[in-house]
Amino acid sequence: MRDVSVIGTSQLPVKKRCERSIRTLGADVVRAALNDAGLERVDALYVSNMLSDELQSQKHVAALVADEAGLAGVEALQVRAATASGAAALRVAYMAVSSGLVETAVVVGVEKMSDLIPTPALAKALDAEREAPDGATLISQNALAMRLYMERYNVSADAFTHFAVNAHRNARQNPNAIFREKAVTADMVRASRPIVPPIRLYDCAPICDGAAAVVLAPTARATQFSDTPVRILAATGATDRFRLSDRSDPLQLQASHLSAAQAFQEADIERSAVDFFELHDAFSIMSCLQLEAVGFATPGCGWQLAEEGAIALNGRIPIATMGGLKARGHPIGATAVYQTCEIVQQLTGRAGPNQLTDPHIAMLQSIGGAATTVFTFLFGGA
Amino acid sequence: MRDVSVIGTSQLPVKKRCERSIRTLGADVVRAALNDAGLERVDALYVSNMLSDELQSQKHVAALVADEAGLAGVEALQVRAATASGAAALRVAYMAVSSGLVETAVVVGVEKMSDLIPTPALAKALDAEREAPDGATLISQNALAMRLYMERYNVSADAFTHFAVNAHRNARQNPNAIFREKAVTADMVRASRPIVPPIRLYDCAPICDGAAAVVLAPTARATQFSDTPVRILAATGATDRFRLSDRSDPLQLQASHLSAAQAFQEADIERSAVDFFELHDAFSIMSCLQLEAVGFATPGCGWQLAEEGAIALNGRIPIATMGGLKARGHPIGATAVYQTCEIVQQLTGRAGPNQLTDPHIAMLQSIGGAATTVFTFLFGGA
């Protein structure tokens, strides 16, 4: 096993609707990321996408994007883990380059949710035999967890308000974010319409289109390609019991906890060394539960980090520094690749107005389904 | 990078219809393969499946199978490359164990095509914007290639007859094959009804259900788990231009040729060292073109290997030794995992009545779409 670094990145602005097709969106970011790394070709192309089967009638995305990007010949495959697909693809690319079997790899996440109503396809992240027939969807499972949290810890839905406020504040100065226009206040969040109670509009990430790509190479060669490579210190994945109802405690995200603990061990660093945390804020309850599962807050207290401003850019553990899933946007299969691009921006001092002060270690966590699958990454240094 | 071996296998009999669900079929072969390797748990579970999005409303298969197999906690993800998905998953598992990041991994392929008519979902392996709107399907693209072959080399459809005869003969004594009852003669193949001309019924692999699993471990530790481990000597992937019509010669399978050449280089062996070849005989034209692309026959002469009996169990280059996709069956996402299990059977002397005489080196090739994606593997020794 050898060390692996990110040597190039590219992201398209997340939009409510991109006019171009997934082949073009994907190929564009692949070319741009290769260009960023000063590469003409790569050895492998790993694609992440969740919804193209239903929304674009396309089940062979990797070869399609490879061809459109002018890379026909290259090894290409698709990696999936429901809503954590981008992180799963990054994990595979990390293993590929780490093994020495692949020298350079591009990970491209692309999702176009605007072609059809994506909700039925998204619900297929759940158990089709034992959850979906009851009408369960990703949002209803998150609503279940949020209600249980509110009951157990005796807090109202308002406790989660500042996750959205923070994300929207950070998105405003990110040119790739979907929500940049409007300042979002705590009052607006609290007054927003119920979606699946207790989840309100501002507790949810939006449906959107986007594509992002990152290029990986062995750390030993990284400075040949980039003046500012960023090292992947750890990449881990874990699962929980599939259904919330099968878990002894649905508020303890075991896969989040386990993959984070393994990542800290793999990188040989303490949690306290993490300077910021790009987490999976598809729903505000998940931000709260991840902060608790990883250990940044004790159970029942995750929301207080938002309330107190500890998650802000100048706080103790900044999250969603470029807007997060909530306000940069959550084009599913592309999301964790966007997060990786943003981590590279932060660690290399290119985060613009949202730049953190001298961050060294970043954590990324991506969730598949109702916290059934979780991948965790640590990034840092050159 | 370290050497990787197969230390356990399991396959369910391929059937026209299995009553159980994909979670159960997948979990059963995972448990059986772990049992074969004497393992209770593994570090990672890589799933291959192509059609569950449409046929089972399930987009989170890896975690679902992991949970059902009692492996919750384990890293789990799904790998896809259309009809080559099983091979793509095996490639990922190979890289994972080779890297040292994963010690033991199970690859499980599961496909249940009987729940709905699978043809529309299968056609999504093609280009949804530029091929499918014309009514193109996987079979029509293969028919195009077959017609072109017949015209260029001035042969009739009868030239392909013995691919089916050979596959069916070999399936009859494989307890896991879907077609075991009936002896299939050349006359039957020639008289079979046209599907998409010039492709006839016996030129096509059947629609079916199945699941298979293999367990991988570092070669250095393989004999701890198995008395007869089988080493993976090479694992490579390549792509071609996506559409047949974009290729300078649709009868030259570039991805097949390229991935095979890379595999020979990686394993440092000559083509002549290959004792048998489990190829992707979803359509008889593909058997012919692969034999030519890899170099077992010159262009225009692949069918002669079938005619002359060179592909038979006692021939120069046996193919489909346990029935192949044509007659063992082609439960898409599981197919290359079945092929791996059969290669292990042959190399360890457990192929029953179909046992080859002392084979040392096996080749596996799996095709995604219209030969757009190809993965090649070489196996051999301990």
What does the model show?
Two copies of one chain form a homodimer. Chain A starts with a strand and ends with a strand. The first copy, chain A, is α/β, with parallel strands linked by helices and 382 residues long. In chain A, strands 3-2-4-7-1-8-11-10-9 form a nine-stranded mixed beta sheet, sandwiched between helices. In chain A, strands 5-6 form a two-stranded antiparallel ribbon. The radius of gyration of chain A is 19 Å and the shape is globular. In chain A, 34% of the residues lie in helices and 19% in strands. In chain A, strand 5 and strand 6 form a beta hairpin. At the A-B interface, helix 3, strand 3, helix 4, strand 8 and helix 10 of A face helix 3, strand 3, helix 4, strand 8 and helix 10 of B. Strand 3 of chain A pairs antiparallel with strand 3 (75-80) of chain B.
Task: Chart the SSEs and their pairings.
The structure is a homodimer of 382-residue chains.
Chain A: E1 4-11, H1 22-36, E2 44-48, H2 52-55, H3 61-68, E3 75-80, H4 85-99, E4 105-112, H5 119-122, H6 138-153, H7 161-171, H8 186-191, E5 194-196, E6 199-200, E7 209-218, H9 222-225, E8 230-239, H10 254-267, E9 276-278, H11 284-294, H12 302-307, H13 324-327, H14 335-347, E10 361-368, E11 373-380
Parallel strand pairs in A: 2-3, 2-4, 9-10
Antiparallel strand pairs in A: 1-7, 1-8, 4-7, 5-6, 8-11, 10-11
Oligomeric state of the chains present here: homodimer
Q: Total number of helical segments of chain A? A: 14
Topology order of chain A in helix (H) and strand (E) letters: EHEHHEHEHHHHEEEHEHEHHHHEE
Count of DSSP E strands of chain A?
A: 11
Our measurement of the CA-to-CA distance between the termini of chain A, rounded to an integer number of angstroms, reads: 18 Å
